[in-house]
Amino acid sequence: MRYQLLRIAVPRKGRALPLLQLAYDRDNLSPNKSQNQIEQEALLAVVRALPESVRPVILADRGFHRASFIAWLVRHHLNYVVRIRKGACITEKDGRRWKLGEEGLKIGELRLMEGVRYGLYHDRPRELLTNVALCWRVSKSRAKNPRRKQPEEPWYLATSLKDAKMAASWYWQRGWIEQSFKDSKSRFGLARVRVGCPERLSRLLMALSLALTWLSLMGLAESGLLLEGFRAAVSAWGRVSVTGMALSLLEKLGNIPLCCLPRTSTDG
């Protein structure tokens, strides 16, 4: 049996630290709650738990391209960068209608379409205004290495931001969650897990979230745990994430330092 996994995470130095992870059986949902409702309620719970001074920017891939989700973000006054699909219909302020992919964007080019209507409803433009950043961005590492493949198509990003470069920079960090998934499946053995119900998997994911939080605390320079020259030694073979740094430190120390563990009320 395979379950759907929702991970809401914050990007942090090459990886994404999970704030909430939830597993559910997509083929056996309650008749009173859809998958979209589960996702939106989970996201809203995380947002409401943040300090009032924090203004999050919601990053989401093409799986969340639906107009109803973007409209939901707008209603809740959340900033967002959501990748939408090639072929989606865009209607400009003057009424001109075209599909993403017909704009003639070139590699390396960035454009911003402000205040356009996204999508159709019964063959008429939806009453959903957003900005769309057209970004065919090439990373510096790809640009310097001719052997690496160039991106096959641009990013089409629906966003509340008013700068295409800023939207692309934000969305670039969403890729870090993919690396975090790879870590969970390989280094933490999630790919080998076999459970009989999504509730058990959710409990396991909660434990994984705690473990990743502790590792993040260990791997930060502010923790004071990294010995002089340790970061340089670990990074000798290339850039390393905060999780990778912490795992190397854990291997060296043999245990999680007490300063990374939560204190009880009886601690001094």
| Rg, Å, rounded | 21 Å
Q: How far apart are the first and last residues' alpha carbons, in Å?
A: 47 Å
Summarize the amount of helix as a percent range: 25-40%
Number of DSSP strands?
11
Number of helices: 8
Proportion of residues in extended strands? 15-25%
Low-confidence stretches: none
Shape: globular
- String of helices and strands: EEHEHEEEEEEEHEHHHHH
Written overview of the protein:
The protein is an alpha+beta fold. It has a domain at 4-180. The protein has 8 helices and 11 strands. It has helices at residues 35-49, 67-75, 140-144, 164-172, 175-186, 198-219, 230-234, 242-253; strands at residues 4-12, 15-24, 57-60, 79-83, 89-91, 97-99, 110-118, 120-121, 124-125, 129-135, 155-159. The strands form 3 sheets. It has a 7-stranded mixed beta sheet with strand order 3-4-11-10-7-5-6, sandwiched between helices. Strand 3 (57-60), helix 2 (67-75) and strand 4 form a beta-alpha-beta unit. Helix 6 crosses helix 8 (242-253). The longest helix has 22 residues, at 198-219. It is globular. The model has no long low-confidence stretch (mean pLDDT 83).
